[in-house]
Amino acid sequence: MKRAIGIPALLLTLAAAPAPLVVGSVRDQEGAPIPGASVAAGMLRTATAADGTFALQAGGVRSLRITCSYCKSVVVSVQNSEPVVAIVQRYHALSESSPSARDLRSLPYSRPESASSLHPFVVLTDSRAFLPGARLADRAASAQGGAVIDDSIPDYDIAANVSLLPVIPSFDLQSSDAFAPGQTSYTGDQASGGVFILNDIPAQGSDASLTGGSDYAARRGVFTPNAAYAFSASSNQSTNSARGAAQLHVPVGIDSLDLSFLGASAGVTRSSVWSREGIEGFRAQYARVRDTALQATFVADRAGYVTTFASAPLSSTWSDLVGDLTVSSQTPVQIFGDFGVRQSTGLYDADAFHLRIAGSVSQTHFDAGAQTSGPGYSARATIGAYAIAYNGGTGGVALPLQAQALVPSVYASYALSPQWNLELYAGTSFRLPTLLEAYGTNPDPDLHVDRYAEVTQTVTYSDLSRIKVSMTYMSEKLSSLDAGTVHSAGASIAWQVAPELSLRAWTMWFNDTTQPYENILRFGRDAPAGTPGSLWLTYENPSGFRIDTIYRSDFLDALPQRHVDASVSAPLGAGLRWFVGTERLQDARTVDAGIKFGEP
Q1: At residue 488, does pLDDT exceed 80?
Q2: Residue 257 has what pLDDT?
Q3: Which phi and psi (to 5°) does residue 435 adopt?
Q4: How far apart are CA 359 and CA 536, in angstroms?
Q5: Out of 3.40.190.10, 3.40.640.10, 2.60.40.1120, 3.90.1720.10, which CATH number does the structure's domain 2-90 have?
Q6: Average pLDDT over residues 18-29
């Protein structure tokens, strides 16, 4: 009897014994963890966690096969049940947005707008004159450019829509993100042309660089979990720039307070025209997450420039005060509401031309919507209500103007299969007229606000290994201040031709038939049609030696500018890299060389 009881007890004891495990981690050639990688031993399989680690229940395993999207598969041996550390080659040209922070350290581009327009379907326009400066627009949706967020501070010139990108010193950009209108929560305020987020503060570690040649530039940046900063300066034949930015992260119990500071100035000389421009900004954001998430944001900034035109002085200044509160549920289908107030003021003084305009613009908005996401899909539907009031004029005579806007939009991304993905956007947006546009000619008692109605479709195919292809089409109708249509169609490809050779390219055709309803004062010449794009070939071997060659077509004074740029870089050891680059910037060919230091 005791024997009969003992045998089942022994079997239960053996069954309860821990199953043998093979544990380890999967990282790429840069040491970054790879989440979602497949780890297999025969018919047994598991996937890596967010930190790249895995645990596979298996015994007697001699080897593991590791595969992941946009990676070169590897087989690693398992010895004596010791933890496995697998290094795989990840094809960054496909797995990261382009240009990534990793790309920026090797590219030849001194200007942030040149690097940012390597993003597929981002159109760069520039001017030989100081005004209006470089502009970026998604799919050429807006000739007036998209919204630029500079180190968390909006670059928003309500006076005359002049770009302040020259205040960013040469070779200072550390990261660049480009978002189409459907991919962001921004509405209005030029966001119909896309949202471009530029940062010169490092996302991790620290960095430093010294550059000489056509540009003389230096920068230093440091990131820690609670504080980060960057200081930079540059000088070349036309521009001298200096800049400082800092961020603080302050834990408030389980909540957080993030503070951002920015100060920058630049002197620009082109032909016989000189200018001095600058920007100062502060941003505070408080975040609280419970059953609902609450985010409160306050932004204060001011900027402007002083210049000469036809030997006459001209100055423009503007400022913003922004308060915003967002509340969202923490449920699978998030319901959110956003309330914000923005007060913008501006002064445009060209007294020698009998033109002096001053005014303020108030915006109050409430957005509500829902969003959800899951494996292979995401969706968002929003509607925003705006109340807009102008109070300004010229010649000492004030003319109040008012308008309202209702801004609905729908965005969805759906994976038809692991290889095919479809993105759809249908929505409206608006761009407010500058004070120069509203009051520079005979003021109209009606406030004309550019209204955009846009539909965009993008189809993407990837073999999940070495190639990714996207095709996009946009149809847009403008009404009120400008009227007409914009159509664009484009294609992009990212192809890992060989383990050490990648090709990234995009091209697009657009046709812009829009015209203002009457003669208005604004800066810049618009390209009515064109085919911008770039072809970017990168060679990088395992030791880190890298060559980038780029053919691109941008617009300079509304005319195509086609040129070839290139750079060579390689590690020196201990986080140091040397580089040499050449680019065509407006009408001149530049050559720069330097060293860059970076540590994770």
Answers
A1: yes
A2: 97
A3: -60, -35
A4: 45
A5: 2.60.40.1120
A6: 84
